[in-house]
Amino acid sequence: MSVRRKGPKATAIRVATYVLLLAVAVVVIFPFLVAVTTSFKRNTDIFTYPPSLVPRAAVTVPAEQVGLEGDPVPVYTFPARDDRSGQWALVDNDASLAEFRPLDDLERIIVLAVTDGDKTGATITIDGEAEDVFLIDDGGTQIEAYRSRLTSGGLFVSVGNPDDTVLDLVNFATPVQEFGPRFENFTEVLAERDPETNGKGVGRSLTNTVLVTMLVVLGQIITSILGGYAFARVQFKGRSTLFMMYLGSVMIPFVVLIIPLFQLMLQVNWRDNLVALIIPFAFSAYGTFLMRQFFLGIPAEIEEAALLDGASRSTILWKVMVPLARPAIATLATFGFLYAWNSFFWPLVIINSGNPDNAVLSLTLSTLGGRSSTDTNLVFAGAILAMTPPILVFLFAQRYFVENSASSGLK
Amino acid sequence: MAAVTFTNISKRYKDGPKAVDGLDLEIADGEFMVLVGPSGCGKSTALRMIAGLEEISDGTLAIGERIVNEVPPGDRDIAMVFQNYALYPHMTVRQNIGFALEVARVKKDEINRRVEHAAEMLGLTEYLERLPKALSGGQRQRVAMGRAIVRSPQVFLMDEPLSNLDAKLRVQMRSDIIQLQARLGTTMVYVTHDQVEAMTMGHRVAVMRKGILQQVAPPQELYLRPANLFVAAFIGSPSMNLITADLTVNGDEVFVDFGGHRLRISPKALDRYPGLRERNGTEVIFGLRPEHFAMEDDIEVGDDQILTVRCQLAEAMGAEVHVHAVIDVPPPMVDGAPTAAEDDPEALVAGTKIIARVDGIHTVAMGQDVRLAVKTHLTHFFDPASGAPLR
Amino acid sequence: MRFRDRGPREPRVTVATGIRMVTIWHLFGVAAGVTSMLLASRTGDDELPVAIKLLMQVFSIVVTVAHVVAAYGTFRGLRRARTVSLVTNYLLFVVAGSALLHQVGAFTAIGKFGTGLNKAFLPFLVIVVGLLWVLVAGQLLSNRPHATGPTALRKAGWGLAAIAAVWFVIAADPSGMLSTLADRITQPLTIGTAIVTVGAGMATRFMWQRRVAVHFGTSAAEEQTLSGLAFLSPNLIGFMFFFAGPLLFSLVVSFFEWKTTGTGRTFVGIDNYVRAMSLDISSADAANAGNEVLKSGYQVLMHLDWFGQNWVLGARDVEFWISLRNIFIFLVLAVPASVLPALVLSSILASRLPGMKVFRAIYFVPSVAGVIGVAIIWGQLFQSTVGWINYIILRAGEILPFVDPPADGHPWVSSNSTALLSMVVVFAWMNFGFNTVLYLAGHQSIPKELYEAADIDGANVWQVFRRITVPQLRNTTFYVLITTSILALQLFDIVWILSTPEPGGPNNATTTPVLALYEEAFQGNNQGYASALAWVLFLIIFGFTFAQFRQQKDGATSGGVS
């Protein structure tokens, strides 16, 4: 290592570097953070402004505490009302109430029950309309006021003192909230699609995706090992021509193939069946290249020794070459997993959209999260479920994955 | 146990050059045959052809009575030790040695018995459960041999097995291998580029050059009666000194004149090289091994058998001193015929370099003139054009 | 008739008998081929669709001829006969075997297996855990063989997996599947196919044997060729069937007017291509003239104003041209956005500062998370009223003087002007990490000595970056640009999820060629035309790929430091 520059300038550069890296990391992590918190929120909580990263639930008190029976009652405060402090439980959401304005202070509003206030018999003209004058109770004193509006609002009971009640418009009440993640989001989203329970059916898609991914990865590993070995170590006629063809196949974008593949699936009656997602993708040109490259790197003498020992090519492949090829196989498995788990375009084409039994995660998510989605929190729970396995697999296999994808990509 | 017979074997590569050209060689049953030669001479190719790892372009190869040209390696009942040992990295020593038996579906007890027996023979018993990466070079070498032994093959093949070992270990392994082959009595074909190894180990040695077999004979024979200039120069360390000279033969009187020197050759040389008599007045190449010299006083020779040269360099080797000198004659560079200088094209200096080995008791200084006695009865003679010995 | 070799070889069937049996089998194969031909050619109620019929007829002829040749060859012991017989039987085995599986419904059963897995998912997870233990134990054992801990772990793993497997079978309840299988197996056609499969398989097995090879005098080189092709065959068959075949078919279809579902099919030559690519320019009087100014069949694509004269540019497939325009705008924006940050970041990550590996892993995560999830998240972020993007901009506007956010949140995704931009953001976010890693690999090949020399010369960080790092990464940059461009040109998934009110966005602002293609094939029912579009897109992409291949070839010889 060369002598490092020391001093304030170098340190400043270092700090700036880390700041930059952290900033980018924040940009990367932030959407995931939003996703995770949203997946724990109540649906109503998602569309609040300003957006918040914390899933919240309404604080409640048991009904008995405020003299009622039944479900717990939500609690509010009145930040807009200077004279009213403490927490209040909303007992009745549809109480009829009236707004009274004192005659000596027409701007002020006092909210009372409709039945409150005694008519004095007098009238007063407000804005050309004759209004009855009432005697109402204002903090102990009786004053004159007229009734400006009838509306419905809430009946609140003080949490500290159940005898203390107040009527007010619900708009002025702010719900008291606490940290309240809703774990049911995940169980609900996994439930079967059933009109009664309104399950979103991701559970079935999850298992389908597992099945498809597993079989695709298995198929790719086996065919790539066989093919890679053939290209690497067996001299057969036409090997270079075939290899050129394989190389060329990488240049063809998948989109060119979807229509004929679709027709093929129709002919063999694989449409709308998971097998259409598995067998056509159990072969991978990239995988074959990867294994070939790796096998080429194993010294030929080991194989020659095995040949002399009388082993057949097949024995050599599975007993000698493959145990040595673990890193390459791990890379292949990871690539294959990510590809199969996240694939969307082809499943979209081949699986009927109305069929929940054969859908894979990406499909179900896209219909759930589509333009007509209503349960955003469930959608996000589903998205988290869909994204966690590939991220975990990636982080776990990172050692092999990152080095190999980079180097094999540049060959 | 089986003999190996090459009949007119050739191997040609696509671009043309022949790696092995018309090889006829019979290796007897139980024989320790060494294939030796400079790199690129075709010895490894020949060995690999016995193994079945190289395709044979022409000729027939037989192991025992069987012609095996088209027989795959696994069916030839031979075993090979590779230069880099080629152990299976992920298998223990026991599994490595037993692999071939496993493939042949021998019963497990039998496998263990034979593996342990081989391990004992090679001193590997305590390493049986280790992986190759936990072994030293010498130990890996022995595992490779164990793998070969355990199969009781008809032929052993060894491809420069000692070249990756340090000098001391090499000497020890050499004797181990010799004893092993003597004990087992299996036919052994051994490839090396080190002619000292070749001379000490083989029953017979086959010298190859550029795909062509030069001579096959027991080591002593190669030393005493080389079949051509190349073999003469190749065998012996330091190499034989080859000097172009004018020959005068007059009855029993033989003289060679070169670079201002004249040496009388003992008549005994005529017995070994009768062809000299026809070469009076012509140019010949004569060869003197470094060990055919001595300091003037150490042996009794006539004055006309003394060579006076100026010492360019004296290497004190302890038991002997190597005296380097230059003869004022262009070194033998004969078209189409092998010479010692061919592998060293830079050596086109004016003058032929010679080396003489004299008793270590002498002190020779650089620049000093030395008088060397020559044992001329051991001289070799070759034709400058063809390199053939003048017998 | 067991040909299995076991231990010290004592085969039960001699070579001669075996060959005779194979010859008889070939004769049977001739008969089967003829039968198949007759079946394929039947008319009337059972007539097969033309494509399949033709295929089967050709197949039957080939099979029959092959068997005739093979029968003759094996009977006479001709040298090449073994190869012919092997190839014939092996291919027959594969085809018949696949047909058998198809008839038995084994393939679709794989799909139906999803139900079973769903029911028995828990035991499945336990099996996975068990196998993981085995795997981990294997890794540990590879370094210290015979260590007791890992060996026990491995045994435990297998045990756990075995128990869970039994549980799995019980929970998955395969009874339904088994009864269907039993039904299908007893069909006569299925039985026939099964016989052919088994026969071909056994014949292959026999003829493959060493001693038969010796009998027929197969050379070692031939044996290698057969061996190599055998190893390659599963891979190759898949390649042919699911790639090469469809590729050719795609090309053929593009010359037809062919309904996706249904039976409409007419040969139209290059009409599809012509239609896709047709453009027309006409002068107009008014600045916003309509279709009437153009040739018939053309619609307005855009209005131009050259030299004071109004022009109207029209196309026959307006949507396709719009998609081309969109995708090129996207390309121009998204590719630099995905590549430049990667270049800068990789240079930082390539240094040996602590923590670089962590950052590298973090940056890579968006590439693996899955495009659907990511698009959904960004959809929420871009939400005009409660989305974080607008909120952050609002807050930034309070702090920074030059940021002036609109009063209401901007509808990123549903507005003409920014819909495509939103896609760019998502695409760049997803891909920059992957590109960073690619660049990191490029950094590996820059010789350290260059940096050391620059250090001695007193260059500062920026100079080093500009004059050494960037030029040295030329090849990598080229590669990254091309691969990102190829990805960008195929944009579909992000658009499908993110754009509102429908895929393609407001006024086709985010329609991409692949989207247009998809809609044409599966909503418009025109797979012929859609195939032509696909090939046009392919040619555009191919231009990029080809450039990259050429550069790699040159770069390999000239690029880098010599």
Q: Can you walk through the features of this model?
A:
The complex is a heterotrimer of chains A (411), B (391) and C (562). Chain A has helices spanning 8-39, 43-46, 184-190, 202-233, 239-249, 258-267, 275-278, 285-296, 300-308, 313-324, 326-342, 345-350, 361-368, 376-409, and strands spanning 56-58, 60-61, 73-77, 88-102, 110-113, 118-126, 129-138, 141-158, 165-168, 174-175, 177-179. With 411 residues, chain A is an alpha+beta fold. Chain A has two domains: 58-179, no CATH class; 202-408, MetI-like fold, CATH 1.10.3720. In chain A, the strands form two sheets. In chain A, strands 2, 3, 4, 5, 6, 7, 8, 9 and 10 form a nine-stranded antiparallel β-sheet that branches. A two-stranded antiparallel sheet of chain A has the order 1-11. In chain A, strand 6 and strand 7 (129-138) form a beta hairpin. In chain A, helix 8 runs antiparallel to helix 11 (326-342) and helix 9 (300-308) packs antiparallel against helix 10. Chain B is of the alpha+beta class and 391 residues long. In chain B, the strands form five sheets. Chain B has a six-stranded mixed β-sheet, sandwiched between helices. In chain B, helix 2 (93-103) crosses helix 3 (108-122), helix 2 runs parallel beside helix 4 (137-149) and helix 3 (108-122) packs across helix 4. The model of chain B has no long low-confidence stretch (mean pLDDT 88). Chain C folds into four domains: 15-107 and 186-253; 115-182; 279-315, no CATH class; 319-557, MetI-like fold (Orthogonal Bundle). The longest helix of chain C has 34 residues, at 220-253. In chain C, the strands form two sheets. Chain C has a three-stranded antiparallel β-sheet with strand order 3-5-4. Chain C has a two-stranded antiparallel ribbon with strand order 1-2. Chain C is built from 22 helices and five strands. In chain C, strand 1 and strand 2 (265-267) form a beta hairpin. Chain C has helices at 15-40, 50-76, 81-104, 106-119, 121-143, 148-172, 175-185, 188-208, 210-216, 220-253, 271-277, 318-349, 356-368, 371-381, 388-399, 419-444, 448-457, 461-472, 474-489, 493-498, 513-523, 527-558; strands spanning 256-258, 265-267, 279-284, 299-306, 309-315. In chain C, helix 1 (15-40) runs antiparallel to helix 2 (50-76) and helix 12 packs antiparallel against helix 19 (474-489). By secondary structure, chain C is mainly α. The model of chain C is unreliable at 1-8 and 557-562 (pLDDT under 50).
